[in-house]
């Protein structure tokens, strides 16, 4: 094994070689969290732990693949690929697959929305729409919070609809059982419920000598139910940063890392504080922000790197601010700095309107992080729905999508025939019903019959066959867009080549996090500016970082209510402040144009020591006006209040 300890600092080395039964490593931003986790796994391997008895849980499949790649660099590819590295969902799915008959289908959030929409029906416009229903449902599942309590705390306007929402969720659960469907929350919950059985917990826990968890600060109560039963049977090594916990809206709870030593007996805590990303001058403002918190984060980052202070520029309005940023990026590019060296972060995409315009005016190429994935595209989902029917003929959501590919059927026609499928469980029975129904259903019946005959083909070829058989329907449905949409089919086939069955392909498809990676819309070498919300940018770094719109009412947002929300917003700003490597540009506008800010709004930077930044006031005009007590007659506005 190559020397994986080379370059580790004393804090990292202590974590890597710790003999504590359970360890939490609180790794500040840029302190080498992944490097430490890789070295820990290599240390276990070097000391005789079989790779198959190591489980490393990450929050994205991309991170899992990177972890395996880095382990393989030190230990060799044969050993590296035998380490169990996966997301919570992939790990649980594997456990279920080993113990179930495999006839179930895992559905993704888009499928959930379709089902919620079906059960929502034609309710009043004030009633939550399908995407919001899905979010409410998933939050309650992940946070273990009751629906009524959630509505009281977060959505009191929907409390009058409590009984109706509850019934929709009951109907949704029943439909999943009837159709052999599992959503992503079910995948975790099935394993978590089984782990409540001590015998199951012992069997699974004793399968591993070590369980390592990355991004521990993003763990939610449902995921904690997967980890907690293992404590008695294996060793936990959890890495993360409580100061970067910013996903409470998904049910995550920073307390699982912050209070780890209280929750896990015989556990210890170590902290990584040496930052390798930013100059020490940049860390002053982020350290100050944490110290100003009511929560004790118990760390202060430091760096041996040197550079200038962060810039804080004050503008008259967001348009002037946006023009400056766009001009600076354009000028830097003229001096040879690539566009891709720039990262612009907003708390909310609503605040970037002026910037979008300024960048477009200068023809500066832009990509938005966390964008739309081709896997979510309608035509791709049409093809996948056909595969789902072959795998699970009672998957009514897949039938609804498949049938609407054909002319003259539409949503109502598809729903009507699917309702008649109720007692038919075999594919042949459903095809026969289609043939015996209205003539418009004969083409989908014959197409499905033909596709079913191709099921022995390998996955890539099967997708090609489906596309060819439905080519006429796709060309009529998507018209002029079909040629460009068809270009996605080879990409889908390339993904399918990795899988040996419809079942494994559908599992990978459903478990794929759609927002993993950039949507570049072209060659991966394209030079572009990255514009991102802070939530999508966590884990990123860039040479030059811009954090605009730092005015009152934005940090924290004026709608922030509870102390927990207030502190989460502080952590959002901390994440933004710790992304830069060579240049950190902060700015705010004196006049906000997108919202009205209530008087007395809290402001994180209100007491910020001026010596932490280089302050620059840009083009702000001062207008002296007499102070008068004016009576304003609203009738003169031509409207009545």
Structural features, described:
The model is unreliable at 513-524 and 620-641 (pLDDT under 50). The strands form 3 sheets. Strands 11-12-10-13-14-9-15 form a 7-stranded parallel beta sheet. A 6-stranded parallel beta sheet has the order 3-2-6-7-1-8. Strands 4-5 form a two-stranded parallel ribbon. The chain is 46% helix and 11% strand. It folds into 4 domains: 10-97 and 188-274, P-loop containing nucleotide triphosphate hydrolases (Rossmann fold), CATH 3.40.50.300; 105-179; 308-372 and 523-617, 3-Layer(aba) Sandwich (Rossmann fold), CATH 3.40.50; 375-502, PCRA, domain 4. It has 29 helices and 15 strands. Helix 12 (221-227) links the parallel strand 6 and strand 7. It has 641 residues and is of the alpha/beta class. The protein is globular, with a radius of gyration of 27 Å. The termini are far apart. Helix 15 (280-291) packs antiparallel against helix 29.
Short descriptors:
seven-stranded parallel sheet; 641 residues; Rossmann fold; alpha/beta; 29 helices
Number of helices: 29
Give the distance, in angstroms, between the N- and C-terminal Cα atoms.
76 Å
Query: What share of the residues does DSSP label as strand, in percent?
Result: 5-15%
- Report the CATH superfamily of the largest domain: P-loop containing nucleotide triphosphate hydrolases
What's the gyration radius in Å?
27 Å
Reported for the largest beta sheet, the result is: 7 strands, parallel
Named CATH architecture of the largest domain:
3-Layer(aba) Sandwich
- Strands in their spatial order, largest beta sheet: 11-12-10-13-14-9-15
Main structural class: alpha/beta
What's the CATH topology label of the largest domain? Rossmann fold
Please report the first level of CATH classification, the CATH class of the largest domain: Alpha Beta
Poorly predicted parts: 513-524, 620-641
Overall shape: it is globular
List the quaternary state of the chains.
Answer: single chain
Q: Averaged pLDDT, please?
A: 88
The total domain count is 4
């Amino acid at each position: 094994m190559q020397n994986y300890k080379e370059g580790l600092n004393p804090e990292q080395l202590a974590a890597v070689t710790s003999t504590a039964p359970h360890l939490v490593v609180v790794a500040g931003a840029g302190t080498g969290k992944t490097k430490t986790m890789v070295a820990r796994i290599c240390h276990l391997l070097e000391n005789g732990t079989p790779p198959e008895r190591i489980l490393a849980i990450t929050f994205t499949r991309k991170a899992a693949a990177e972890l395996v790649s880095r382990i393989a660099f030190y230990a060799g590819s044969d050993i590296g690929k035998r380490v169990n590295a996966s997301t919570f969902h992939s790990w649980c799915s594997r456990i279920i697959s080993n113990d179930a008959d495999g006839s179930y289908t895992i559905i993704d959030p888009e499928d959930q929305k379709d089902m919620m929409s079906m059960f929502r029906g034609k309710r009043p416009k004030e009633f939550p729409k399908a995407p919001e229903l899905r979010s409410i449902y998933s939050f309650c599942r992940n946070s273990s919070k009751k629906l009524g309590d959630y509505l009281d705390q977060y959505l009191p306007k929907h409390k009058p609809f409590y009984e109706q929402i509850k019934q929709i969720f009951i109907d949704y659960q029943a439909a999943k059982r009837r159709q052999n469907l599992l959503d992503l929350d079910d995948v975790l919950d099935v394993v978590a419920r089984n782990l409540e059985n001590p015998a199951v917990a012992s069997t699974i826990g004793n399968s591993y000598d070590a369980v390592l968890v990355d991004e521990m600060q993003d763990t939610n109560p449902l995921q904690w139910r997967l980890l907690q039963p293992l404590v008695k049977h294996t060793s936990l090594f959890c890495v993360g940063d409580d100061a970067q916990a910013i996903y409470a809206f998904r049910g995550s709870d920073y307390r699982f890392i912050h209070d780890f030593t209280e929750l896990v007996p015989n556990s210890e805590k170590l902290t990584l504080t040496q930052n390798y990303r930013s100059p020490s001058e940049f860390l002053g403002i982020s350290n100050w922000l944490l110290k100003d918190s009511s929560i004790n984060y118990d760390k202060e980052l430091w760096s041996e790197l040197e550079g200038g202070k962060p810039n804080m520029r004050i503008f008259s309005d967001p348009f002037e601010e946006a023009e400056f940023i766009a001009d600076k990026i354009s000028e830097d590019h003229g001096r040879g700095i690539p566009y891709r060296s720039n990262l612009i972060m907003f708390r909310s995409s609503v605040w970037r309107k002026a910037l979008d315009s300024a960048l477009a005016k200068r023809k500066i190429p832009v990509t938005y992080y966390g964008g739309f994935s081709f896997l979510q595209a309608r035509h791709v989902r049409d093809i996948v729905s056909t595969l789902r029917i072959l795998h699970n003929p009672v998957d009514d959501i897949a039938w609804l999508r498949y049938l609407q590919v054909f002319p003259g059927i539409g949503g109502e026609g598809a729903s009507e025939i699917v309702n008649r499928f109720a007692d038919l469980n075999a594919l042949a029975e459903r095809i026969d019903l289609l043939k015996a129904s209205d003539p418009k259903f004969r083409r989908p019946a014959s197409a499905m019959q033909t596709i079913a005959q191709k099921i022995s083909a390998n996955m890539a070829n099967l997708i090609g066959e489906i596309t060819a058989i439905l080519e006429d329907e796709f060309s009529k449905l998507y018209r002029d867009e079909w040629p460009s949409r068809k270009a996605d089919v080879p990409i889908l086939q390339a993904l399918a080549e990795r899988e040996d069955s419809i079942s494994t392909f559908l599992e990978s498809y459903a478990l794929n996090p759609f927002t993993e990676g950039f949507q570049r819309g072209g060659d991966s070498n394209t030079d572009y500016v990255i514009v991102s919300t802070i939530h999508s940018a966590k884990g990123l770094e860039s040479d030059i970082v811009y954090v605009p719109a730092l005015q009152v009412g934005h940090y924290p947002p004026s709608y922030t209510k509870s102390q927990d929300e207030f502190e989460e917003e502080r952590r959002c700003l901390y994440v933004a402040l710790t992304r830069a490597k060579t240049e950190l540009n902060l700015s705010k506008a004196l006049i906000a144009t997108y919202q009205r800010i209530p008087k007395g709004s809290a402001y994180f930077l209100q007491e910020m020591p001026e010596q932490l930044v280089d302050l620059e006031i840009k083009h702000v005009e001062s207008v002296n006006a007499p102070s008068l007590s004016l009576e304003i007659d609203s009738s003169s506005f031509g409207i009545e209040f």
